[in-house]
Amino acid sequence: MKKLWGGRFDGKNEEWIDAFGASISFDQALAKQDIQGSLAHVKMLVHTQIISKEEGQTIIDGLIKVQEKLTNNELIFTVQNEDIHLNIETFLHEEIGPVAGKLHTARSRNDQVATDMHLYLKEKVEGIIEKIIEFREVLVEKAEENIETIMPGYTHLQHAQPISFGHHLMAYYQMLTRDQERMEENLPRIDRSPLGAAALAGTTFPIDRKFSAKELGFSSIYENSLDAVSDRDFILEFLSNSSILMMHLSRFCEELILWCSHEFQFVQLSDTFSTGSSIMPQKKNPDMAELIRGKTGRVYGDLIGLLTVTKGLPLAYNKDFQEDKEGMFDTVETVEKSLAIMAGMIATMQVNKEHMLESTEKDFSNATELADYLATKGIPFREAHEIVGKLVLSCIQNGNYLQDIPLKEYQEIVPVVEEDLYDKLSSYTAVKNRHSLGGTGFDQVKHQIEQAKKALN
Length: 457
Ligand code: ARG
Hints:
Layout: H1 15-21, H2 24-27, H3 31-47, H4 53-71, H5 84-96, H6 109-145, E1 150-155, E2 158-164, H7 165-190, E3 192-193, H8 209-215, E4 220-221, H9 225-230, H10 233-260, E5 267-268, H11 287-310, H12 325-347, E6 350-351, H13 353-361, H14 367-376, H15 381-398, H16 407-413, H17 421-425, H18 427-432, H19 442-456
Parallel strand pairs: 3-4
Antiparallel strand pairs: 1-2, 5-6
Bound molecules: arginine.
């Protein structure tokens, strides 16, 4: 079969080698964008009188027919036509004959493929932003139900100080808000038209790049034709933003997995997001959370893959760039699905409030409370810290807790201690009293939730 670029070739081609060079198996995902880009290009060619109105109209009608066939799943892509661009051009040729050949005037596959990628990613990132917003809404809702749910707060995965579960959820809300900001900040660089850069150097045809950019809804154009066809920063940025986002989801999943375990029993995930074991009848596994944690690896891989592909490339286009697509598609799909699963999983999660609270009552996470109490009674904090440390040690030896020590015993060590200490030692009070800005105090968590609701509106 004759190649669209076959003029200067007379050797016969080998199918398996063609297959190695082809990208149609994956870049067919860009079919819609490729047609869209061609429509804008041909309109520009008419507008600048590079081709006649009639020719332009024939091409437009042909492209619309190809689009219809695409929608109806009637197009059969072939490896012989290498990639999406040559496949679509061949379909157009089948529709309208030789005039199809005028479409590629003043254009190269190099600016064409870059245009397709920009169009694709713009739509996808906008969709991902919507999904982040939905997940943030779920987080705020769950947090609101759990403002006064007390849980152990951890450092080093050791009980540290009791906190509000709502506060914990809102920490993830904040991370997701930053993820959204990063996605939004990526947009102006995705939303830029490379079309008209041609192969690398621009063209002698009197094209109007701003016209085609406007047709495609791009808000700016690349200033430099070499940069236009060889820039993949906008994808790298997306992959890097996605890696950070997935890292956040993965950390959350790790916590969910812990919380579902017999040791924690803090939450129960709905059956929809869990699976059983083929041998152990009792099992309920948090598979979806584990998978999101696992899939974070492939998103990092997609980022490192593209960074590596681009690192040694001389300007401008190199075929290596064909390797930019699968990772991008994979990350888009992974992020979209992970966000949707997370939202569903958190929305339907059951919180074992009593159990969470209980696990803060048989521990020493109120030790700071006692030290703070002594400090407010005039004992220097360092000294108070030392006193409480010793008390903790003797409690461990006696098998009891700070709240179990009788008032008399406290007063023997520090006379300033009064009955009101015991309320201060309860984890509920400990959380409630953390009024410092951004702290876990109920008033602070409420304030945070109010701010979040405002931001989401
Ligand atoms: N399939 C190619 C890619 O994805 C399209 C651009 C080909 N350009 C070229 N000069 N061979 O990168």
